[in-house]
Design goal:
Length: 322
């Protein structure tokens, strides 16, 4: 593959195109300053304004959320996996019907395999603009987002209506539901009973991995972060490895499915037969299936990178009721 062909599979941090109207809470005070990014795959945006950088199916989606301090993402649920790692800043994740069942604070490099089937939200509690990178299970990301009832009600009060088909209409732009199309119904009390309310003690040990713990695990070989035999044991349709300057890999890496490389710290040189590229934190690179490649730090100093590879497993539920 030529450098030009591979360059089309690299999304640079500085080239990311945000969408500020991606979801139903885009006008809700406290959530109206967030920016959503769809990097690989169609994502779960409810807005036609969302730009997709790489549309090639990978078996999973890659996205990101950027938020200023004190900005939050409203309570929602997914039918497939949702994994976040912190690229920049300090973030509080919370979950439950009203967001008070449990919470955890993540620092840069920490990763959270959020269980499916529970309402979750997150907010930037740092002092500067923060960014979290996301991995969503499945090519269609599970068919969209399930919102807590109060989120839909709050959005309606601020001019946004979500249709039953999952499309967003903004009355501030003169839009309204088309004739014959119904608004997204609120979940009933009976339906809400199907959403678990796990505690912090149940979730954090089984679904959160800390950056410095992974650095220690990756002393000689990549640390297995998410997978059937990994630190966070799960089969969400993809596997995640953590690689550091101690575990640089030669040019014999090869996978049956595309691999996505996302640096957390340091600069990384990726080589393949026909070219090379250097990645920085915030960049995302998709290596085609059956392509031999190598990765190594491009300079001295601390370096860490997350690698995601699809497995072909169904991107199903991850909450096991630990």
């Amino acid at each position: 593959m030529t450098p030009q062909e591979m360059d089309s599979r690299i999304v640079r941090y500085g080239e990311l195109q945000p969408c500020k109207t991606a979801f139903i809470d885009a006008h809700t005070p406290g959530s109206n300053q967030k920016e959503n990014f769809t990097i690989i795959g169609g994502g779960v945006s409810e807005s036609p304004d969302q730009h997709v950088h790489i549309s090639i199916p990978h078996g999973f989606n890659i996205g990101a959320a950027g938020q200023p301090p004190n900005c939050r993402n409203s309570l929602h649920s997914h039918r497939t996996a949702e994994v976040f790692f912190v690229l920049k800043g300090r973030w509080r994740f919370f979950w439950g019907r009203h967001g008070d069942a449990g919470e955890v604070v993540l620092e840069e490099g920490d990763i959270f395999n959020i269980p499916t089937g529970i309402f979750r939200g997150f907010e930037n509690i740092g002092t500067d603009y923060g960014m979290i990178m996301a991995i969503l299970g499945g090519d269609d990301a599970g068919g969209g987002v399930i919102w807590a009832p109060q989120v839909i009600e709050d959005a309606r009060d601020h001019g946004l209506i979500l249709s039953q088909k999952g499309k967003l209409y903004d009355s501030k732009k003169g839009q309204s539901l088309p004739d014959g199309e119904q608004p997204m119904p609120l979940l009933s009390d009976e339906e809400l009973k199907a959403f678990p309310e796990p505690t912090t003690a149940e979730v954090v040990p089984n679904y959160v991995a800390r950056y410095w713990d992974l650095v220690a695990l990756a002393d000689r070989q990549p640390a297995r972060v998410i997978g059937a035999d990994a630190k966070l044991r799960d089969k969400p349709g993809f596997e995640v490895d953590f690689i550091t300057q101690s575990t640089k890999l030669d040019g014999r890496q090869r996978h049956d499915n595309p691999a996505v490389l996302m640096p957390v710290r340091g600069h990384w040189k990726v080589t393949w037969d026909g070219g090379a590229a250097t990645l920085a934190p915030g960049d995302t690179m998709s290596v085609p299936e059956n392509t031999a490649y190598g990765i190594a730090p491009a300079m001295t100093g601390e370096a860490a990178l997350y690698r995601t590879v699809g497995t072909g497993d169904p991107a199903g539920a991850t909450w096991k009721g630990h």
